[in-house]
Amino acid sequence: MFKFVDCIDAGTEYCPCYLAEKGECIICSQLKGRAFCDCLNWKGTCIFQEYTWNNNKAKKARDFKEYVLKSINFLRDDLIIMEVFVNPYLAKQLNNIGSYVFLKKPQSPHCFAMPVSIMKSNIKNNVITMAIKILGVKTKDILDCKEKVEIKGPYWNGVQGQIFLKNLKNSEILISARGVAASPCVMVANKLKKHNNNVIVILDKGRSNENFAKKEFLDLGCKVYDVNMIDYSNYTLKDEFKKLINELMRKHDFKVTMSGGSDEFHRLYLNYIYSVNKNLNFATVNNALMTCGEGVCGSCHLKLCNGQVIRGCKQQYNPAEVFINIKGDVNI
Amino acid sequence: MMVIVIGGGWAGCAAALQAKKCGAEVLIIEKTDMLLGLGNVGGIIRNNGRWTAAEEMIALGGGDLFEIADRCARHKNVEFPGHKHATLYDVNIIEAEVRKYLYSMGINIMFENRVVDVEMEGRRIKSVYLHDGTEIEGDVFIETTGSTGPIGNCLRYGNGCSMCILRCPSYGPRISISMRAGVEDLQGLRGDESFGAMSGSCKLEKDSLSKELQEQLDKDGVVVIPVPKEDINLDKLKNKVCQQYALKEFAENIVLLDTGHAKLMTSYYPLEKLRKIPGFERARFIDPYSGGKANSIRYLSMAPRDNHMKVVGIDNLFVGGEKSGLFVGHTEAIVTGTLAGYNAVRAGLGLNLVELPTSLAVGDIIKFENESKQTIEGLKQRYTFAGAVYFERMKELNLYITDVDKIRKKVEGLFLKDFFKNKII
């Protein structure tokens, strides 16, 4: 059975990482305790060679650095848009699908660091834009930032199924997003538009009657629809949402659909799409709990249906393998 | 019936050709943009016992590729230390000729596609997967992916990636398909029982040599020059794949052969040292590009097989070339590949499989290699018609024959004339 295994850091300047040092590399058999090559998931560079030439050590890991806070803009009591001046290197590296950073208040201990998706990264003025929902200890702590924030990055695994997005050219994609998960979808839409794709976006009206990211999508030239997506009485997809999906799928030739929401939403949405059209590829916002971002701490681990353990912070999976119930017994 | 050949080197081409001649639909899946693999930098045929093997194959009706190689010869009847009546084919033209021939026979070829995994159904392979997840179904599969590289192996067991003709960084590394199907690979050993062996020759750009050397190569096909005493390194011979060229003469002399490039019969040679030798002042390597420090590592991925070339434990997977054993050379690849192609079609039809008779060198080597590699000492040997232990055996058993008529009569006597020309579908 063909195995879709991909490490988002493979072949980057952060590869090989601590995992290779401990014989746990996601990609390379020689750095996974085996004596011979078995490059099923070749990423264009030999990680074993990089490791040997780096004196059998991991490359230097990312570290926190202080950056100047440009602005915090309250969209609601519990939803902010944060802009930060970063250096040109970080701005360029974060201008990619799935980019995220760890963010914390200067002087706060490392346990306050939280992963935040990048909505926009301006490589001209080096400003990154993030949407943050104030939910708990870490997000409340960040509200106390005055002039500076600490950022550790770049990381790129904020979106799963990236292979389907990066290969999409001159085609059509449907993005359905709700709440703060619309933020990484803006970056996706931005990149897909550059490859001449028609990007159709459905946004959940939510509490504010309009998603904060609507303007961003419109500015990119996406066609945007506002609907109420969820029937909270039994947590299923609302009929108006399903009707809109059916209508759009009749009208367009989508090759990929992206889900921006919680894992519960991914499950409902992907299974509904699968029930309508079995040929679409899926991308999802990555909701794995992340603490270190290096595949070490274990908080992001999840199990695929075949029992394989995935390190959610740096390992890619095919969202269909995680969320689709082939028997079709999900209460959509 | 669909026969899928994985790997388009000499063995894969021979297997595909034979399966096609037998009447099957054939698809070669090759990871690079060229057929012949290491055959693009080899070039030596018909030396010593390879003469007999080539003529036996021609008499058996499986000589198509030898005839192309003969047509592409730059030099015939060349002698160099330990070797007689060699033919040196032109590595710069032969790939296009073989490609043209395979296409003319109706063989399908997918270039720049790398097979990475298999789908099994019990003891049978149902399909193979390409690197992008595409699934390709077949009835019978022939693996001729060789045993060389990839980068990590060349690093762990050699001096690192030497940027050889296999071009792993460009086209992706070799994958052992038999291992993906659940059969553990065998490895060849060196004298000290470490794994693998280093490719035994490198190529210099002929134009970078002195005019005199170029002229001598063009005229005679061979140049022998003594190595400066301080540079003689007999230890290097122990690591060499090509035991037929691991003679003292090859350590004490620089042996150059004209295969279109100037083939330097040593694994690698530090450029600074090489350029101190008269005539080599401007020398540069053309294969491997880093021939000044390294060469590719081989024999790390052989599948256990029977004498029909079928992989032990899998009902519809056959192997040829280095994948099938500790064989060295194009001739050996063509012989084993041809039998693999023939038996693959028989297996697809549910017919009994055939062995080649041991009264012919081409049958004897297949059986002898298989028996020999059951022992540790046997795993340290390489098996070629051209030298080392197997050429000695050929001479002892009177299998080494250079009289073409005698070879033809022998094959006719076995009622095997044009055996490989028979359509069986």
Automatic annotation (TrEMBL), chain A:
InterPro entries: 2Fe-2S_ferredoxin-like_sf (IPR036010), 2Fe2S_fd_BS (IPR006058), PyrK_electron_transfer (IPR050353), Riboflavin_synthase-like_b-brl (IPR017938). Coiled coil: none annotated. Transmembrane segments: none annotated. One of its GO terms (molecular function) is 2 iron, 2 sulfur cluster binding. PANTHER family: DIHYDROOROTATE DEHYDROGENASE B (NAD(+)), ELECTRON TRANSFER SUBUNIT (PTHR43513), DIHYDROOROTATE DEHYDROGENASE B (NAD(+)), ELECTRON TRANSFER SUBUNIT-RELATED (PTHR43513:SF3). This is Electron transfer subunit protein. It comes from Caloramator australicus RC3.
UniProtKB/TrEMBL annotation, chain B:
GO terms for molecular function: flavin adenine dinucleotide binding. The keyword Acetylation does not apply. Pfam families: GIDA. InterPro entries: FAD/NAD-bd_sf, MnmG-rel, MnmG_N. GO terms for biological process: tRNA methylation; tRNA wobble uridine modification. Its cofactor is FAD. It comes from the Bacteria. The keyword Signal does not apply. Keywords: FAD, Flavoprotein, NAD, tRNA processing. Residues 3-222, 272-347 form the MnmG N-terminal domain. Homodimer. Heterotetramer of two MnmE and two MnmG subunits. PANTHER family: GLUCOSE INHIBITED DIVISION PROTEIN A (PTHR11806), PROTEIN MTO1 HOMOLOG, MITOCHONDRIAL (PTHR11806:SF0). This is Fragment flavodoxin oxidoreductase. It comes from Caloramator australicus RC3. The lineage of its organism: Bacteria, Bacillati, Bacillota, Clostridia, Eubacteriales.
